[in-house]
Amino acid sequence: MRRADALLADPPSDLASLPAYRAARARLDWDAIAGGTLLHADLHGGNLLAGPAGVRLIDWGLACQGNAWVETALLIPRLILAGHTPEQAEALAKQVARLESGPRGCGHRARRGVEPVPRVRGPQRP
Predict the structure, then answer these.
(1) Average pLDDT per consecutive 10 residues, the chain (126 residues; last block may be shorter)
(2) Could you give the C-alpha distances from 73 to 24, 87, 123, in angstroms and in order?
């Protein structure tokens, strides 16, 4: 967590939403995200290698320790960028039990009746 705090403390000066970034960082609850679980912290399709033996998670350059729910919460924006609606992304994340142990606001807004829409791009197919 010290590494993440150091990186977050020095954002790029040309960051488009620097005031919003600083406000969000000021509200970050380090105790809520602390934990002993190994986190990849950069889970997305480009870091999944699919083959005959299954799927492997690669590129552990941002790996850190934290609370287990953090990994799932970090996945929500990636799902939205991949084409899911926010509701779909939250519904998918809610299927991961660990997210339920996180603080309010980290994926608890999933709405009933939203079916997840699986998306697989060509390079991700086994």
Answers:
(1) 69 81 84 90 89 91 88 90 92 74 47 37 45
(2) 15, 13, 24
Q: Which residue, chain included where needed, has tokens 């799902």?
A: 79
The answer to whether 72 and 93 have CB atoms below 8 angstroms apart is yes
Q: Give residues with Cβ within 8 angstroms of 107, minimum separation 6.
A: 72, 73, 76, 90, 93, 94, 99
pLDDT, residue 1, reads 57
User: Distance between CA atoms of 30 and 1, rounded to whole angstroms?
Assistant: 8
Contact 21, 11 (CB under 8 A): yes
* pTM: predicted TM-score of the whole model, two decimal places: 0.62
